[in-house]
Amino acid sequence: MPLAPEAAIPDALLEHLGEFAAAQSPALGVFYPGLPFSPTDGVAYLAARYMPNRNDVLAVSDAAHERHFGLLQVSVMWPDGEGGIIPAMDLAGQVIAHFPKGTRLQGDGVKVEITRQAWLVQPLEEDDGRLQVPVTIPYQAFVAPAVSP
Fold it and tell me: Quick count: other Cβ atoms within 10 Å of Cβ 74?
């Protein structure tokens, strides 16, 4: 049974993030929403947050596709004492490069598009000494209307 669009969209985005993390040397761990994760001291990892927004329809028709849009936030979690802000910002830049504007992802019947270049915000120092560099990735997906029985 295919996933509902509300699940297929984050599935496509998080799968693409997982491909990036697995391609790093060594591979990066990813803290996915709702799944257990225990970071290893002294090791960088990524933390994903999925933030959908309200849907809209761009045409006046019962058959018009709905536009789903929102943000995927990927935080680079950099360990204390491992080079500071420069390698953390470099890894954040690599995340941005993996999700360039115009990227199209396919997931369980839903096409997801990255609508503009991702951006990062001010690095945050966590209580445990880690440096968090949040990267925000905007997306949209057009979904066919549900068919009434």
Answer: 27
**What confidence score (pLDDT) does residue 59 get?**
65
What is the domain class of 5-56+66-143 according to CATH?
Answer: alpha beta
Helix 85-98 × helix 5-23 angle, to 10°? 130
The pLDDT of residue 81: 82
Taking CA 123 as the corner, what is the angle to CA 118 and CA 129, rounded to the nearest 5 degrees? 140
By the 8 A CB rule, do 120 and 92 touch?
yes
Whole-prediction pTM value? Answer: 0.90
CA–CA gap between residue 135 and residue 96 (Å, rounded): 7
What is the average pLDDT across 100-121? 93
Cα–Cα distance, 45 to 76 (Å, whole number): 6
